[in-house]
Amino acid sequence: MELKLYDTLTREKRLFRPLDPNNVRIYVCGPTVYDFAHIGNARPVIVFDVLFRLLRHLYGADHVTYVRNITDVDDKINARAAEEYPDLPLNEAIRKVTEQTDKQFHEDVAALGALPPTVEPRATEHIAEMRILIERLVASGNAYVAEDNVLFSVPSMPDYGKLSKRPLDEMIAGARVDVAPYKRDPMDFVLWKPSKPGEPAWPSPAGIKAPGRPGWHIECSAMSWKHLGETFDIHGGGIDLVFPHHENEIAQSRCVFHTPVMANFWMHNGFLQVEGEKMSKSLGNFVTIHDLLKDWPGEVIRLAMLQTHYRQPINWTVSGLREAQKTLDHWYGLTADTMPGYLCADAIEALADDLNTPKALAALHELRGEAAKGARPAAACLKASARLIGLLQQTPAQWSAFRPASLAVDESKVVGLIEARNAARRVKNFKESDRIRDELAKMGVVLKDTKDGTTWEIAR
RNA sequence: GGCCACGUGGCGGAGUGGUUACGCAACGGUCUGCAAAACCGUGUACCCCGGUUCAAUUCCGGGCGUGGCCUCCA
C-alpha cells in the first residue's frame, strides 16, 4: 500500500516514505490552553487522528510516534488569568486557567474519538531545550540580543519564506509600521523576551540578566527536537499557521541543526465556516466542542468533519450534523450484532490517497448497500473499516441511549404514552393510538413499531 | 494593496481530457391498521469569457465571487 500525502512546502502530492519505518514521526501543533476549544480547533485534532490511525495501520501501532503539544505559556493565557482570577497572584491564576482548560480539552477530544497522542509535551516543561536552541542560534549568528530580547535574524537565512511562498523583499515592503525599534530588520521575530513583574519568568539565555519567557515559535522547535529529533516525517496544523508560525519554526530548527528540511511533509487542514459565515464571537456563531457534545454524539461530529476532505474549506452546519447522525444510525443498525471483519480495500486506498475521507466514506456507503441486502461479510467489513477511522466504537445500546440536551423530553411520560398507545392498538382503537402518536410527535418524539416492540427517538 | 487557496446538481461532496461517483433531501413504489424506519426505483451538475484539442467540468489565460494569511488566530 502506497501512501501519498500533499506537502504544503512543495505544493504537490508525493509518495510518503518514512525516515525510519520502525518509528514514523509526526508533530502537530496543539492548543493554547486559555479557553474552551471550538469546532475549528476540533478539525486538526480529528484530521490528524485519522492520519495517526492510518499510519498505525500501515506501519504498526508501535511504530508511530505522534506528538501534539500543549501551549501553556502565552499572552492570551496571562490575560485570561488576570481577568478571571483578579484576586489571585498571576502565576497561581495562570495555573488554574491552564489546568482547567487542559482538562476540558482532553475530555472534549476524547469524546470526539481521538486517540491520545504518543506524547503531549508542555511548553513550560521544555524551557531548558528552548534555551539551548536560543544559545546556539546566537552563537551561529542567526540570532542576536537586543534590550533583553533575543531575536531571530530573518535575513541570516537566505531561503526564509519557502513554505508560505513569501519572498523576503515583498514582505519587508508590506511590513507593518509598529516595528520594535531594537529590531535590526522588521521581519525579525522574538525567540525570548523579558517578563513583566508577576508574569511567568525563567532564567534567560544568552547572558541576559533579567528573567524572561519564550516567544511563541521556539517551543515547537524545542519540543519536536526533544521528542522526534532534528528532522522528522510530518508536521501538521491549521492552514493559518503556515505563516508566520511554521515558517519561523523551520527557520529556527534548520539554522540550529544545519538541515535542509525540518520535516519531510507539511500538512495543513483548511479553514472552517459556520452556516456560511466566518465563525466569530461577535456574530454569535462561536461553536465550542463542549456545547456541541451536549446535543450530538462525538462520532456525529467526527463524521460531519470527515465528510469534507481535510484541505478543503468546510462549512459547518446543523444539516451536516443531521446527515452524519442519520448515516451512523443506519450503520449502527446494520452492524449491531456483527463482529468486525476485513478492512475495506477501497476505503484504505482512498485514505492512503492524501486522506481522501469523503471517498473512503463512499466506499463504506457501498458496503452499507450490500449489508442491507443481507451480506454478512459486508456488514463485518463496514464495521471494521468504520472503526479504523474512529467510528462505530460504541455498543448499539450506548449509541441509542444518547439524548440531546437541548431537546430534552420527559422520558417517563413518553414511555407512559407509548404504553397507552399500544394498549389502544391492541383493541384496534386506531383513532386513539394515532392521537397519542400525534401528541408524541408534537413533543418531538418519533415512534418506530417493530416486531420486538415500539422504540422511539428524538426528531432533529 | 501583496501572497495563497477555493467555486461541481436543492444541499453536502469525490473525481475525470471522451463512459453512473457517493450521501442527504425530493418524487414514485414495496412493507405497515396508518405512520416511522427499512428496501426498490427515478431526476437535476460541473461560476463566466476566451484559448489548446477531434473532444474540457477536467489543461492554459483572463474575469467575477468566496475564504485564508500578511498582527498574538485552528
Key traits:
460 residues, alpha/beta, Rossmann fold, Isoleucyl-tRNA Synthetase, Domain 1, 3 domains, four-stranded parallel beta sheet, 15% strand, RNA-binding
Q: Concise description?
A:
The protein is an alpha/beta fold. It folds into three domains: 4-270, HUPs (Rossmann fold, 3-Layer(aba) Sandwich); 273-401, Isoleucyl-tRNA Synthetase, Domain 1, CATH 1.10.730.10; 409-458. The chain is built from 16 helices and 15 strands.
Structural notes for this entry:
The chain has 460 residues and is of the alpha/beta class. The protein has three domains: 267 residues, HUPs (Rossmann fold, 3-Layer(aba) Sandwich), CATH 3.40.50; 129 residues, Orthogonal Bundle (Isoleucyl-tRNA Synthetase, Domain 1), CATH 1.10.730; 50 residues. The strands form five sheets. It has a four-stranded parallel β-sheet with strand order 4-3-9-10, sandwiched between helices. A four-stranded antiparallel β-sheet has the order 5-6-7-8, with helices on one face. It has a three-stranded mixed β-sheet with strand order 12-11-13. Helix 2 packs across helix 3, helix 12 packs antiparallel against helix 13 and helix 15 runs antiparallel to helix 16. About 1% of the residues have low confidence. It binds one RNA strand of 74 nucleotides through helix 1, helix 5, helix 7, helix 10 and helix 12.
